[in-house]
Structure formats: structure tokens, C-alpha cells
Design brief:
45% of the residues lie in helices and 13% in strands. With 295 residues, it is α/β, with parallel strands linked by helices. An eight-stranded parallel β-barrel has the order 1-2-3-4-5-6-7-8. The longest helix has 17 residues.
Length: 295
């Protein structure tokens, strides 16, 4: 099954002045994305600062998001861990809370060998009934899924997709060729159209936090065979997209949102404020592209 087609936002987690989850702001953001044509909500992922959230906070954000969205678009929960038992538990809890699917990153730091990673994902998949998106992001985890391992994992019934964030289009093309049964989502905003060109279903996007309708329109233009429109949107916004990664994600996107009046709070340590020099570059591009301020 295909979990979603189009633009899935890798949603930030808004914090208040005490650096606690701001649920009222989260409600506003969820409604904002539904109103602005986002096709799926991904919570408690990298952009949501899940690595600094307690289990109680993660589950509260998942439940709140599921309840507010109320089936209007899919809600996908990040439940990955480098501890298999913990990932199983989180995944089961997310399913109980009504998540439509799971985003499960490869094990990080301890990494795992191929047999270990296979059994890690197998244990998670067998513990739930909802669909799972594998998440390959070697720049953060130190692990790059081999195509052979992806092929084997795709035989597990509820492993249905891959968020591909290696930045290597040749590797992604080989996945598309060798494992056509698995849906591909771009995990890099600057490579959305290239990934769509090899059969991708969409993107799990950081920039959609501030450009929801533009990212949706770009994907849908391509899928509706208006390739020229999709290409133009990709190239037009790539300077801004790249600047949203001028420092480690989600520092720039949260700063951009605060500059635009979203008032989503600061990142949690160890993520600190942006440098003044990088802020200037980011703010100039937000002005250049006339990105809408929070309404």
C-alpha cells in the first residue's frame, strides 16, 4: 500500500518559553498544513527533535496530532531507535494511539551489521500491523542500507516505503530499478524532482514547514506530467532550500519560522542558536522569495 503521495511535512516540534512542548501552537501548525495542502504529517522525526524528547513527550505529540488531524491526512510517527526493544515498544504505542504509519530510521551509533539490521526491522514490523517507511540517512547515522538488504526488507509485508536521504541519485536509481515494489520518498528537499523522475511518490520535506503549498504543487505538477512547472519550482527555491541546511537541521528552519512570526520556540540543546552571519543569509532569501509570514 502507498501511505501517501505528494508532500509530507517533517514537522518541527514547537516549544514554549520553558522549552516544553507547546500543544496549542502544534494544533495551529497541524491545521495550517491541512489548509495549505500538505499531504501527510510526519511527527517525532529528526526535524521534530525527537532525540531530545522523552518517550512521554513523543507519545503525547503523536496522540495529539492524531486527534487533531482526525483522519483528514495521514499522520506518520517517527519511532526509530538504536535499541530494538525500545523501537518495538515505541512503534506499538504509536499504533495504539492511531498513527497511520511509522518512519523508522536505521540504527545509529552502534549501527548494526546486515543481519542485525534485518532482524531489527523484522522485529519492529512483526510487532505492528501499520505500514513502515524505512529511513536511510547515512550522514546522521553512519549506516547506508545496501540495495540487497532493502530488497530483502521489502519482502516484509508492512515495510512499504523508503525515505531516501543519502543524497546519491545513482544509488536511489538502483533502488528504483532493483526494488520497484517499495515506494520512494525524497529525504532531501533539493532532490525532490530528481527522485520523482525515477518513480518516487513524493517527499518528506523540511522546507514544507514554511512552503507547504509550493512543495505540494511541485510534486503534484510532476506527477500530473507538468514536468516543466515542477522543474521550475525546484530550481527557483533551491537556494532557499539549501540555506535551510546551512547549519544542522532543524536549527535554520525553526529560526526561519520564528523570523516569519510562527513563534515555535528555540531548539533544545545540544542545538544552539544560528550564527548572526548565517541568519543574515537566511533572512535575505526569505525576503527574496517573499515567503509568507504567519497568519
Amino acid at each position: 500500500m502507498t501511505l501517501f503521495t505528494g508532500s509530507g511535512v517533517a514537522l518541527i516540534t514547537p516549544f514554549n518559553e520553558n522549552n516544553e512542548v507547546n500543544f496549542e501552537k502544534l494544533r495551529e501548525l497541524l491545521e495550517f498544513h491541512i489548509a495549505n495542502r500538505t499531504d501527510a504529517i510526519i511527527v517525532t522525526g529528526t526535524t521534530g527533535e525527537s532525540s531530545t524528547m522523552t518517550d512521554e513527550e513523543k507519545l503525547a505529540v503523536i496522540k495529539f496530532s492524531v486527534d487533531v488531524v482526525a483522519g483528514r491526512i495521514p499522520v506518520i510517527a517517527g519511532t526509530g531507535s538504536n535499541n530494538t526493544k525500545h523501537a518495538v515498544w515505541l512503534s506499538q504505542e504509536a499504533e495504539k494511539l492511531g498513527a497511520d504509519g511509522l518512519l523508522v530510521v536505521t540504527p545509529y551509533y552502534n549501527k548494526g551489521n546486515e543481519s542485525g539490521i534485518y532482524n531489527h526491522y523484522k522485529a519492529i514490523a512483526e510487532s505492528v500491523k501499520i505500514p513502515i517507511i524505512l529511513y536511510n540517512v547515512p550522514g546522521r547515522t553512519g549506516v547506508n542500507l545496501s540495495i540487497g538488504l532493502i530488497k530483502v526488507l521489502a519482502q516484509i509485508d508492512n515495510i512499504v516505503a523508503l525515505k531516501e536521504a543519502s543524497g546519491n541519485i545513482s544509488y536511489a536509481s538502483e533502488i528504483a530499478r532493483e526494488v520497484p515494489e517499495i515506494d520512494l520518498y525524497s529525504g532531501n528537499d533539493d532532490m525532490t524532482v530528481p527522485l520523482l523522475s525515477i518513480g518516487g511518490k513524493g517527499v518528506i520535506s523540511v522546507s514544507a514547514n514554511i512552503l507547504p503549498e509550493i512543495v505540494h504543487n511541485m510534486v503534484m505538477a510532476f506527477l500530473n506530467r507538468d514536468i516543466d512547472k515542477a522543474r521550475k519550482l525546484q530550481l527557483k527555491y533551491n537556494d532557499l532550500v539549501n540555506t535551510l541546511f546551512i547549519e544542522v537541521n532543524p536549527v535554520p528552519i525553526k529560526d526561519a519560522m520564528n523570523f516569519l512570526g510562527y513563534n515555535v520556540g528555540e531548539c533544545r540543546l545540544p542545538l544552539g542558536p544560528m550564527s548572526e552571519k548565517n541568519k543574515e543569509v537566511l533572512y535575505e532569501l526569505l525576503k527574496k522569495h517573499e515567503v509568507s509570514t504567519w497568519k
